[in-house]
Amino acid sequence: MEYRVLRYFLSVVREESITGASKVLHVSQPSLSKQLSSLEEELGKKLFVRGNRKITLTEEGEYFRKKAQEIVNLTDSLEAAFLYSDDKIAGDITFACGEVEGISILIKALKKLHLDYPDVHFNFYTGNYEYVSELLDKGIADFGVFVGASPAEKYDYIALSSKSRWGLLMRNDNPLATKEEVRIEDLKDQELLCSRQALEKKEISSKLGYDINKLNIVSKHDLMMNTTRIMIEENMGIAMLLENVIPTSGTNLTFIPLAPKIEAGLYLAWKKYSVFSKASKLVFDYLNSK
């Protein structure tokens, strides 16, 4: 199985057609089709369902796409690390992170880094705690940004000097919107949209002294911020989330903090015994010089 064929496969997936991919790749359509058929024969699995207008992936094809993308990303990152001469700092740094306002600390450091080293570039993947862990474990991400619970023991990490407060996001016409703080007893008659991480890792329950899984939770979410906002606006419930994850300026929404005060820390983590590129090592220098 050749790296080149993996790239061809991913291009067909993106374009949803062999014709479209052949134009992007500047490869003849018959040649591309033959190579994909050979790939399926090699694997002994059907990867595509070939329709009249577009190609869709089979279940095996979707799994192969995920693994092929991981291989391509790792290969590109490795090539970039060795592309330049020893005295030039360049290459890609990859982060996996959750959605939280406090990440601005990291972004400001990366902005300064890029100004000083314009050949250093950044890749970002966003997801929940488990997704960030997965990308770190597979070596796809150089760094992971964890929100809330501190990272597992298999990682080294530093705490970023930023914390976000947990609270409830609701419509302005909700009776709770006039309160300065919301307590657990205020939520027992409310329909809740809640972070899956907060529920599964007991972050909120342990500090409130009450199992929030017992509340009326109508929807669980990971990083569906736009969907969550629409659900609140459509009066499906109020959302338990971190402050400023969904902006309220110019909207009919209000954020009310939880009481007692519950804050989520922010951690920059990496695999233990990681060997960093010259570019990746600079992340620590620029975070310390913020």
UniProtKB/TrEMBL annotation:
HTH lysR-type domain span: 1-58
Position of the signal peptide: none
Organism domain of life: Bacteria
One annotated GO molecular function: DNA-binding transcription factor activity
A GO cellular-component term linked to this record: cytosol
Record key words, sorted: DNA-binding, Transcription, Transcription regulation
Similarity comment text for this entry: Belongs to the LysR transcriptional regulatory family.
Name of this chain's protein: LysR family transcriptional regulator
Organism: Candidatus Scatoplasma merdavium
Upper lineage: Bacteria, Bacillati, Bacillota, Bacilli, Bacillales
